[in-house]
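In response to the reviewer comment on reproducibility (Comment 2.3), we provide here a single inverse folding case reported in full, input and output, so that an independent group could reproduce the run without further information from us. The structure tokens appear first.
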């Protein structure tokens, strides 16, 4: 199989810089997954955004949530997690922007599915996710 495809979910208002760094570092890491930058480039009506993002998540093998300090207020992230669960796409998180185990989480993301931003750990979780959900 080609590299697994990952959808990156993040708080646009607070963690866009971390998303750019994360995506950039994947190109220089040995982490075995591909990221498509499917972020909306313009504001869309809610129903159109939901349909487009849901379809994109369905095409992925895993949803990676970049978990920042204010993540619990990111309504788009909550919807993306729900879309992944509906499509049986495994979800895990990576702490960014100073977030840690005391940070609030968005609904649907389990604390035991969040890891630190270390590429070896991320690669291991990707390998595990390829045995879960729709990837079985």
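Designed residues, in position order:
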């Amino acid at each position: 199989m080609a590299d697994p495809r990952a959808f990156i979910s993040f708080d646009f208002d607070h963690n866009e810089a971390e998303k750019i760094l994360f995506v950039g570092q994947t190109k220089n890491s040995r982490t075995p997954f591909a990221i498509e930058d499917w972020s909306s480039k313009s504001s869309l009506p809610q129903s159109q955004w939901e349909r487009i993002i849901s379809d994109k998540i369905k095409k992925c093998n895993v949803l990676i949530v970049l978990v920042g300090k204010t993540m619990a207020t990111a309504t788009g992230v909550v919807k993306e997690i729900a879309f992944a669960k509906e499509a049986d796409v495994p979800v895990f998180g990576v702490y960014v922007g100073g977030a840690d185990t005391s940070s609030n989480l968005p609904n649907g993301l389990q604390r035991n599915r969040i890891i630190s931003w270390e590429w070896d750990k991320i690669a291991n979780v990707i390998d595990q996710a390829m045995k879960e959900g729709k990837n079985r």
